[in-house]
Design brief:
Blueprint lengths: L1 H28 L1 H33 L2
Length: about 60
């Protein structure tokens, strides 16, 4: 179970990196693109961060740390 959660954590962290990079690029581009997608990307980043922290806490709980 911990191995599965570890792989899932890596995948979520990669998704987080992708969302973060996309958000930075959209913010740097600015204009209409940022107005249309900036808030959605920020919400998606927060959701993926929450998921990563939740998985990390579950791993720590299962390991007894």
């Amino acid at each position: 179970m911990i191995a599965f959660l570890s792989v899932l954590l890596v995948l979520v962290l990669l998704a987080l990196l992708g969302v973060l990079a996309t958000g930075v690029l959209v913010f740097a581009k600015g204009g209409d693109l940022n107005r249309r997608h900036g808030n959605r990307l920020m919400n998606l980043r927060v959701a993926t961060q929450f998921l990563a922290v939740a998985i990390l806490a579950l791993i720590a709980l299962l390991r007894g740390a």
